[in-house]
Amino acid sequence: EVQLLESGGGLVQPGGSLRLSCAASGFTFSDFAMNWVRQAPGKGLEWVSLTSPNSGTTYYADSVKGRFTISRDNSKNTLYLQMNSLRADDTAVYYCAKDRTLWGMFLFDSWGQGTPVTVSS
Amino acid sequence: DIRMTQSPSTLSASVGDRVTITCRASQSIGSWLAWYQQRPGKAPKLLLYKASSLESGVPSRFSGSGSGTEFTLTISSLQPDDFATYYCHHYNTYHMYTFGQGTKLEIK
């Protein structure tokens, strides 16, 4: 059974930084692209970032480009999201989501339970 | 960017009802359309992909159809667990605004 467990969320001041982690199990982590998707309170879903299995290809939503960095450690079966220069509109639950494919179709077939991030002074 | 628009935003129905949710794309997306279900406080769950392919383990009362710019999700006979928010999603693309805004299915 695929399991994705996010951690690292919390309260941070505007302009601050946070690093999210997602521990994966139940599948061969290094065989799949991985994503971060977020959901602001009471709002819909927004894709944030994707990384290929070897981290050679990464994509970012325009709203986070230049501020967020996705990475992965296949030896630890863990996905990361480094978030810098955080703004109030980054407040959301952040989900780790497994891609259906190796190359990345942005089709999310398994999701973690989410970790909340609140950006506020 | 391609915009995905769902209708209605809210739908009230009863157990046993047949319901349909529509998703429209601002330009043709072929069949690159998925549907997700999100129960309150839970992560989204993939229901269908490629417009009409049922994800493994998803009950057969869920079905999808459409191609190009207009798509539908149909639940043939609503069960109590089906009251949730449903999102359409244009995938296999690197674009913004790929999710619909969501349709909340409420108990009448």
Structure description:
The complex is a heterodimer of chains A (121) and B (108). Chain A has 121 residues and is mainly beta. Chain A has strands at 3-7, 10-12, 18-25, 34-39, 45-51, 58-60, 68-73, 78-83, 92-99, 108-111, 115-119. Chain A has no helices and eleven strands. Chain A is 0% helix and 50% strand. In chain A, strand 7 (68-73) and strand 8 form a beta hairpin. Chain A starts with a strand and ends with a strand. Chain B is mostly beta strands. Chain B contains no helices and ten strands. Chain B has strands spanning 4-7, 10-13, 19-25, 33-38, 45-49, 53-54, 62-67, 70-75, 85-90, 103-107. Chain B has a six-stranded mixed beta sheet with strand order 2-10-9-4-5-6, with no helix packed on it. In chain B, strands 1-3-8-7 form a four-stranded antiparallel beta sheet, with no helix packed on it. Chain B is globular. The interface between A and B is medium-sized, with 21 and 22 residues.
Features:
heterodimer, A: 121 residues, mainly beta, four-stranded antiparallel beta sheet, 11 strands, globular, B: 108 residues, six-stranded mixed beta sheet, 10 strands, 0% helix
Query: What is the string of helix and strand elements of chain A?
Result: EEEEEEEEEEE
SS content category of chain A: mainly beta
- The amount of beta strand of chain A, in percent, is over 45%
First CA to last CA of chain A: what distance? 40 Å
What's a concise summary of this model?
The complex is a heterodimer of chains A (121) and B (108). Chain A has strands at 3-7, 10-12, 18-25, 34-39, 45-51, 58-60, 68-73, 78-83, 92-99, 108-111, 115-119. Chain A is an all-beta fold and 121 residues long.
Please write out the topology.
The complex is a heterodimer of chains A (121) and B (108).
Chain A: E1 3-7, E2 10-12, E3 18-25, E4 34-39, E5 45-51, E6 58-60, E7 68-73, E8 78-83, E9 92-99, E10 108-111, E11 115-119
Parallel strand pairs in A: 2-11
Antiparallel strand pairs in A: 1-3, 3-8, 4-5, 4-9, 5-6, 7-8, 9-10, 9-11
Chain B: E1 4-7, E2 10-13, E3 19-25, E4 33-38, E5 45-49, E6 53-54, E7 62-67, E8 70-75, E9 85-90, E10 103-107
Parallel strand pairs in B: 2-10
Antiparallel strand pairs in B: 1-3, 3-8, 4-5, 4-9, 5-6, 7-8, 9-10
